[in-house]
Design brief:
2 domains; two-stranded antiparallel sheet; 6 helices
């Protein structure tokens, strides 16, 4: 069983729980049904700026159908776990620091530069992780 916990972060930083949505499948159709239910009960997307999820292809596809005009981003906590699961212990701290430089960058330009450094530095040792 998969669980979608939907909450929002308002511009003032406060959080509001929108709901818990359970599904027995991870396919796009099941996620679309759950997101359509959420859409009917709450956020329509007109003020929604960003949706953050883990690595679930069915959910990502459903978001494009239900909330096509809202930016979608993969959660950095999940991404970092997946990245660090693929590296040797001796490289752990260095990979983590290089990856954090991407999402802690002060601008898009700095983030893109940090991503290039990350790729250049780790591509040879960890090609699947960099991909």
């Amino acid at each position: 069983m998969q669980m979608l916990v939907a909450d929002c972060v308002r511009q003032d930083g406060t959080r509001q729980l929108l709901g818990f949505l359970r599904t027995h499948g991870v396919g796009q159709a099941r996620w679309e049904a759950r997101l359509n239910d959420l859409y009917r009960r709450g956020p329509k997307g007109d003020k929604l700026q960003l949706i953050v999820t883990d690595r679930c292809p069915g959910l990502a596809a459903a978001i494009q159908t239900v909330y096509p005009c809202v930016a979608h981003q993969r959660c950095w906590v999940h991404k970092m776990r997946n990245i660090l699961d693929k590296v040797r212990k001796r490289d752990y701290d260095a990979v983590k620091t290089d990856a954090q430089a991407i999402y802690l960058a002060q601008s898009r330009r700095q983030a893109e530069a940090a991503a290039k450094v990350f790729c250049r530095h780790w591509r040879r040792q960890y090609p699947s992780m960099v991909k």
